[in-house]
Fold these 2 entries.
Entry 1:
Amino acid sequence: MTRRQGSNVTLKDIAERVGVSAMTVSRALSGKESLVNPETVRRIRAVAQEMGYSPNLLARSLRGERLPTIVVFAEFISSHQYLASLVDFVARAIESHGYSVIACQSGQSLLESLRQFKLAGAVILAPPESLLFDEKGRPRDRVDAEAPVVLIHSAVEQPLYNEVSPDLTDAAYQSAAHLVGLGHRRIGFLGGPPPEEEPQWFRKRRVGIERALSEGGLPPDVLHYQPCPNADVAPAFVQQMLQRVEGLTGLLCLNDEIALAAISGLHERGLRVPRDLSVVGSNDIHLARFFRPALTTISIDIQTMVDTGLNLLFEEIRRGRSAATAAPVKVLQKCELIVRESSGRAGGS
């Protein structure tokens, strides 16, 4: 008899291969695996993958089934290597647990996915404040009344979801303290939206930077902020900052992409890094170590952050409604300053 493959495969076909009932297969593949022996679940999922089984998500949602699918939200991944890496780590880890992944790059598509399908859960990466708060700064309701949600790499203080994030305040402190320790007395920060658009995001970093300035005996006004939405405009924006701020010698950047683009802009102006201006990035993307000068930056342990966040999510999925009343777990992960060639003593000495 010819074995069916791909879209023609049914639950009955998988059941016959494994030697169990179609109901057992349905439970193992529909988010009810707690009702099935773990080894049987593993065998069923392995056979389903081998046979190319593809569930009809819409039909199953219409029947009221909760799907073994997790939605992952992240904005602007095409221009952020760090976010792209984060999505890759998350998606691979989710699939290794036997779940499929839906990826969304806008808040609207995230909400639509959760409304249309009964998903097992959601992972929200680097959420914008507008996703969690309304225009008056009031917390929004849960994005889904039932599906567990975990936030990873968030700068937003919120009362609803489990969260694992880098300690952005400490990261900003480490970067600023590094420049202050090298004798820099006029420091710029390049990147991100205007502070009024993402006040929590800006506040976390400002607190860390001002702490470093205070410990170095410097007033807060030695910090000069320049909004910059992405790396494409960073060369022009860093030149604007230099025209506006006299005597600038140190530059903190929101991320490595903006830092590398800013260095390019400085070179166009005939300035040398770090002799004329020290530059510090954030996120330690793969290219940071190969650029010249190699970029001083903040390193974030993505693997540990993702593993911790998904452990919280899968535990909430396992516990079901019993976890709904528990207080959210918040984990802050310390970052590490990686000193390379793009930062040096003020004045090039």
Entry 2:
Amino acid sequence: MEGRPWWPKGIALSHDEDSITTSWGTMPLHIPDVTEEWWNSLEGTWGDWPQAQKMELIRETRTGMWYDIGDYKALIVPIPTGKQTSRLWRNPQLRQALTAHLQLPFAGLDRNGDHILVYPKTDAAKITAESLAGLHQTLINGNWHTPQDEYGWNDRLEKIENALKTNTLWRAPHSYNTIGIPRIELDRMRPVPIPFSEAMLWKKDTNLPMIRQVIKHKVLLKWRELMPSKYSGEDVMRTATGGVAHINYDLNLLDKAEAVAFGLDSTEIDEYLSKVDRFQAKLGIMRLMLMGTPLGIIGLVATFMLDRAGEISQPSIGYWTFAIIWIISSTAYAFTEPDWRQEL
């Protein structure tokens, strides 16, 4: 089994018929003897379950095994990671909203999560800025999004950092307009189960930032042209509010988790992570520049009150001094903030 792409050889310790034990914990395990007879005798399925005309292995990935079953294709997931994919079909409102944008599974088998998913045989559409913008606007219009959740997102990263022992620590604020959307992992415009490592390290069903999906699939700039400015403006992108830089960190951290779990080369990821401290030092300088702003504001207010009380004879000196401090601080803060476009 160690040679199978979906086997987490980097962290696997032992297994039995229905579970796998790893250095990160235990997960359910279901490795079927795949035959037409096995398929056609399965019980407890959901959706419009098809009869298999054949069981021809197409390919294996870290997610599972893809089979041609005749008129359709099926994904068999030996280590189920959750129900994020099947719920898109099994929830009638979500299904109606998303069918126009995603190639949804129309049948499946739940066994400790999505164990089997059945899809149309045609290839799903490619991921483009247009396709993601259409998906995201549908989620927004249908109220399938959630407010900014910086505490949950930062807690998630902390848990992963601790498990990987990366020696990095990055918490970030996020703009009020950085909204969350349901966790939809995409293989082209086809939802598939979330990665094994992510399911192992973060057990909560957390909506992640919408911009994470477009940054992951490298279509951010074009996507911004197609989305309402409220959700794609500078306040969502900029480094001072998490933005692109922090999302890139999130993606690299999860890629590192996959590399560790499956024993993959992570040279490029390690190089990126080694530079995180230096980037955070830049952010420290940026925040230091802002310290003059509260001083300037407090000074202006104090000058005004003292002037009203008749305690100072030349208030203009105070007004000019503290106004200049405020302007210089704000300008320096803006000047030292890294350009988010350089983070793409």
